[in-house]
Amino acid sequence: MTGPKAFLTYASSVQGGAQSGIQECKHQFALDRWNCPESTLQLSTHKGLRSATRETSFVHAISAAGVMYTLTKNCSMGDFDNCGCDDSRIGQTGGRGWIWGGCSDNVAFGEKISKQFVDALEDGHDSRAAVNLHNNEAGRLAIKATMRKACKCHGVSGSCSIQTCWMQLADFREVGNYLKMKHEHAKKLEMDKKPARAGNSADNRGAITHAFRNIARTELIYLEDSPDYCVKNQSLGYQGTERRECLKGDKNMSQWERKSCRRLCYDCGLRVVEKRIEVVSSCNCKFHWCCTVKCEKCTQVVTKYYCARKENGRRSHNKSKRKHRARRH
Amino acid sequence: MAGAIIENMSTKKLVIMGVTLLLFQAFAFMVGGLIAPSPTTAVHYLAAKCVDTSKHRQETKWFMPWGQDQCEKIRSFEEAMAKKIEANNIVFAVHIPLHYNEMSPWFQFMLVILQFDIAFKMYNQIEDGALVTVDVGLAYRDDPTSEWTEMAHSFEQRKLNCNFTTAKTFENEGRYYECDLLPFMEVGSVSHKYYLLNIRLPVNERKKINVGIGEIKDIRLVSIHQNGGFTKVWFAMKTFLTPSILIIMIWYWRRITLLSRPPVLLEKVILALGISMTFINIPVEWFSIGFNWTWMLLFGDIRQGIFYSMLLSFWIIFCGEHLMDQTERNRFSVYWRQVGPIVFGSFCLFIFDMCERGVQLTNPFYSVWASDVGTELAMAFIIVAGICACLYFLFLCFMVFQVFRNISGKRTSLPAMSKARRLHYEGLIFRFKFLMLVTLFCAAMTVIFFIVSQVHDGHWHWGDHEVQVNSAFFTGVYGMWNLYVFAIMFLYAPSHKRYGDEQSSGQCITGDHGANSGEDIQLTTTITHVDAPTEIYKMMGKTAQE
Predict the structure, then answer these.
(1) Does A42 score more than 90 pLDDT?
(2) Distance from A131 to chain B by nearest Cα, in Å?
(3) Are B114 and B221 within 8 A, CB to CB?
(4) Mean pLDDT across chain A
(5) What's the CA gap between B70 and B207, in Å, rounded?
(6) Distances from the Cα of B292 to the Cα of B187, B224, B357, angstroms
(7) Which chain B residue's Cα is nearest to A13?
(8) Do the chains contact at B86 and A291, CB–CB below 8 Å?
(9) Which of A76, A261, B91, B139 is a plausible cystine mate for A246, CB 3.0–4.6 Å?
């Protein structure tokens, strides 16, 4: 199934999948200087994604993974009428292949359609397109890598003489964690700059394949070093770390969380502002497994920390003065 | 039992027979590995969340997750929250199978596993020992447009065994618990084309039903059925094996009845082994294609159980009859101590099976493991059966040890014996060692292939061919034990050679006429003048006295 009909069938799932990928991205990067801003995420318009930094590689991977994940889930729910059995390895259509040996699983379906949709957005043939496609693939492989095997014994008297095993999707958070780790170990693609800049000429295809030779399919790659995410960059649509929230003071926090204020504010030359906010939250709740929550309302005062610009740059001025003086002495 | 075919057979013929059996064995593996698909298929389903808008519940209303007249669905429970839909109005619907597919009687059985996706919330955690009560209905239809017919309806309780692997902090809210798979449903025949499951999780705060089970996000089901292709190959194999074993069994028993003495215990036990093998072979499963016989699964278990206990008893009695001490056995009652654990153990397993699969005949959602009492009872039965198995193997090992001790004892005194007696003992020793070797080989093969198929689930690539390891394991091992029984009945049948030529030699299948030529090396020759086993025992008694 191709063409507009296919587009209509899968479009909402693809969109939902990309969205869940972005949500996950935002969660994963909540305490990073780069926090997965909306502008980078417009999957269909290339503007935001034309750079190929470490961060965009993550965005590509998590979106592709999100699309695949959602398609797989919706396939299991029976949303698509051709999922699983349309052209699986054993399957003749009409149910005969299904009766003989079952169909290919839903994950293969999700992968295939995700490939069709997400990879189609990349129409260039330059090294940048190749990098993006590679990262899409790495995202899809992350789903497979995080899948878990489950088995059921159903032999004589329930013994394990007959056992059926299957792979099941992990929580999408796990996919996010996995890709975050891959993001930290992302590799820079070493290429001759000239053909890469030259664009989509066919000559550099050999150079691209050569550069990709040493890179595993599961690794994320990038071409350009990330810009300084401390400062606002309008052309990238990035707002800088000013007014970002960071965490402080709780002993149960992980190392990463504890250092968030230093990373987001101090290291970027900003200071931390403390704000006390009165939050109305629900408490003493009685929950049902779905939908019904009976709560009391409680008000709580919460301290939150934000990065803010230093007032008129006075302190930094002082610092330089002091240094100046020291030298004089 | 004096003078079995195996003793009179030349080495050459024994080798030829061995090779033929090995070829059949390889064929059995290949049938499974190359022709059959994998034995079972697991299909994933994600339950659609339907909304029951009716004020008063109608029993006949079925909710379809997709297709024509599908239910009013919601995507997530946030949506339900906004629309003020309550938990009691939500119906999880699963249609088996997915679009355009049909279920088929070739699938033999279907079992369904239930999994909950429960999100972690700081203020809504799963309580310890939480029980989920599901109100579940199963319906079928054979025509995509006809009405659904109810097949079963039940209230079931399942224990939630979930743990949260990461730290329980606000940061990790929304992550899913890792929950054990819950056995949900098992049907012993798949005679309808479409099945529909409607699951409700009713909440009743007063009765503490479905309270403290966390925030359920999704219900996932995995249905497992046997692949039609595997069933076909399996049936074909059974249909082919039944007459083979049946013919050799009749031939064997004819040989025994032709003897001038009544059959001895060992001969009877071999016949019983053949009968139980035939019983398991007879492809009564063909009827499951035409009839809706849900008890076929249970019946299959019983047949397998009978065969296994027969095989285990056979080993014990075979060892006992080859002990070569002066006590006269040849009576079944002598072995009650060894056979007792087998019978008791299999009886325990039978009771357990009746509790699980027997009850499932009436309520497909029943599971012994769901209740505490049931779990304890089932565990008790399994543990008793396990103890019986251990006891049995202790007895068997002890007996094998005894036989070997006696063999080495006899070995030293062999040269001093008269020729007839020596040949008799050599025959006994050879017969025992041969069976010991073959049995160990078969058992080792079974264990090895079992491990290989467990480790390498799925398939191997062998050139362009895809080898289904699991299927190869099943057909191969099944073929192997058939060949084992076949070989025992053939080789341990009384040889006709000692009757001279008055017996028709044509009734022997592969025959050992060549042995008459005298050119082949004879492994042993039987004692020609001793016919009745009682005399052997007398003689054995004599040796013991000496």
Answers:
(1) no
(2) 31
(3) yes
(4) 78
(5) 33
(6) 11, 19, 16
(7) B75
(8) yes
(9) A261
Does the pLDDT of residue B287 top 80, yes or no?
yes
Judge: B37–A157 Cβ closer than 8 Å, yes or no.
no
Q: Are strands B194-200 and B131-141 parallel, antiparallel or unpaired?
A: antiparallel
Asked whether residue B20 carries a pLDDT value surpassing 80, the answer given is yes
Amino acid identity, position A288:
H
The C-alpha atoms of residue B328 and residue B320 are separated, in whole angstroms, by: 10
Quote the pLDDT of residue B422.
82
Nearest residue to B403 via CA among B414, B411, B391: B411
The predicted structure's pLDDT at residue A312 = 57
pLDDT tier at A205, thresholds 50, 70, 90: low
How confident is the model over A280-294, as pLDDT tens digits? 877 777 777 877 777
Given a cut of 50, whether residue A198 has pLDDT beyond it is no
Residue A289 near chain B (CB below 8 Å):
yes
Which of B45, B76, B77, B100 to mutate to probe the A interface, most A CBs <10 Å?
A: B100
Alpha carbon separation from A78 to A18, A84, A309, B100 (Å, rounded): 20, 10, 52, 11
Instruction: Determine the Cα–Cα distance for residues B136 and B201; give it in Å rounded to an integer.
Output: 9
Q: What mean pLDDT is reported for chain B?
A: 83
CA distance A156 to chain B (A): 5
pLDDT at residue number B538: 42
Instruction: Say if A154 is an interface residue toward chain B (CB within 8 Å).
Output: yes
The answer on pLDDT for A273 being more than 80 is yes
Give me the residue from B42, B175, B229 closest to A171, CB to CB: B175
Q: Closest approach of chain A CAs to the CA of B299, in angstroms?
A: 11
Report d(CA B147, CA B139) in Å as an integer: 10
**Mutating which of B44, B161, B213 best tests the A interface, going by the most A Cβ atoms within 10 A?**
B44
The arithmetic mean of pLDDT across residues A96-100, rounded, is 78
B365-384 residues labelled b (16+ CB within 10 A) or e (exposed): bbbbebbeebeeebeebbeb
φ/ψ of residue A45, rounded to 5: -95, 130
Q: pLDDT tens digit string along B144-186?
A: 889 999 999 999 999 888 989 888 887 788 889 999 999 999 9
What is the C-alpha to C-alpha distance for residues B32 and B229, in angstroms, rounded to an integer?
A: 10
Contact B447, B435 (CB under 8 A): no
Burial per residue of A94-109, b for 16 or more beta-carbon CB atoms within 10 angstroms, e otherwise: ebebbbbbbbbbbbbb
Q: Say how far apart CA B529 and CA B535 lie, in whole Å.
A: 10
Q: What is the DSSP letter of A230?
A: T
Q: Comparing A83 with B192, which gets the higher pLDDT?
A: B192
Measured CA to CA, the distance from residue B491 to residue B21 in angstroms comes to: 12
Let me know: does B177 contact B120? Beta carbons within 8 Å.
yes
Residues A69 and A145 sit within 8 Å (Cβ to Cβ): no
Separation between Cα atoms, residue A199 and residue B292, nearest integer Å = 67
Q: What is the mean pLDDT of residues A165-189?
A: 91
CB contact under 8 A, B80 and A290: yes
What span, in angstroms and rounded, lies between the C-alpha atoms of B250 and A311?
Answer: 104
B375 pLDDT more than 50: yes
Tell me the chain B residues in contact with residue A85 when contact means C-beta distances shorter than 8 Å: 98, 100-101
The 10s digit of each residue's pLDDT in A217-260 is 899 998 888 888 888 877 766 778 888 888 887 777 778 888 88
Where is pLDDT greater, at B389 or B410?
A: B389
Q: Do the Cβ atoms of A264 and A35 come closer than 8 Å?
A: no
